[in-house]
Amino acid sequence: MLRAGIVGLPNVGKSTLFNALTRTRKAESANYPFCTIEPNVGIVTVPDERLQPIATTAGTPTLVPAAIELVDIAGLVKGAASGEGLGNKFLAHIRQVDAIVQVVRCFEDTNIVHVEDHLHPIADIETIQTELMLADMESLARQVERLERVAKGGDTSAKAAKAQIEIAKRLLGHLEAGKPALTLEMTDEERAVAQPFFLLSMKPTLYACNVAEDDLATADTNPLVAEVRHWVATHHGAEAVTVSAQIESELAELPLEEATEYLASHGVAESGVGSLIRSIYHLLGLRTYFTAGEKEARAWTIHAGDTAPEAAAVIHSDLARGFIKAETIAWDEFVRVGGWARAREGGNVRQEGKEYLVADGDVILFKFNV
Description:
Blueprint: E1 3-7, H1 14-22, E2 40-45, H2 51-58, E3 63-64, E4 67-72, H3 87-95, E5 99-105, H4 121-151, H5 156-176, H6 188-194, E6 205-210, H7 223-236, E7 239-243, H8 245-251, H9 256-265, H10 273-283, E8 286-292, E9 297-303, H11 308-315, H12 317-321, E10 323-330, H13 331-337, H14 340-345, E11 350-352, E12 362-368
Parallel strand pairs: 1-4, 1-5, 3-9, 5-6, 6-7
Antiparallel strand pairs: 2-4, 8-9, 10-11, 10-12
């Protein structure tokens, strides 16, 4: 299961948001730096409005949603790359995740201390980005030294090392110009060469603007949120979503009906957590297909661009090994026509082979023989 790490400066609401996302109290939430030291890990189900209609159509009461893993990582401070705060431990934890969700404080509260003594969301983002890039530059410099020794040999590994050195030096120049590795234009082949460098600033990143309870309904006109959205789109090509960690933590304690009333009292129709989780899911490069039968309707997680046999392997390796074909129909058509039997009668089911790229939202029945 792929993991997304929740990061940010101390006291921006990371642990409160983690607790709300995972519906747990795993992460201690307190008003002082480094309240989280060892990372907290939780499994989060992915809200998907397609699953219930599919289950109803299939005649099953059992729904199994997709899930991702979230990691609440200790707050970072300026100088982490050189050991300040939790320094290397923090950076090591980021290395172990597949994507980053940076929580950015976009609310004023004199009762909650800010590690820099003033509220400046862009400066907060730049602090973390700078530390990740400094760590990457140090790591790349060491790797170039090692690769240059390998490149002096006459075997096949020397040729590969020379290709890696070329990409590493381009990345170093990009980082030294103050730009994260993710924003360097590279071909798919070049990215494959760069992948073994395990750069922190190469990880896909999503920004979560944490606003006050009373500001959630008007978040789109919040100047701090607007500033963050513009900056991350311009400098990082990234998305920023809005959430109120405090509201979400309170909603986690309420039954559905009371939660709906509570949201309405704050002038919003739905919680921001569902949107945030879906954004994280797509940030990780994940997509969903469904299976639907009398026993259950289930959402299965695949990577964007996976073929039918690769999707079958998510269920069981035997389905991929003995793959014959995939009976496939789009989820909305499956619901519209009334399930598998009527879809077959009406000629709505496609027969797809090994080269088929599974689309997000496909309902699939695999045929196999082992």
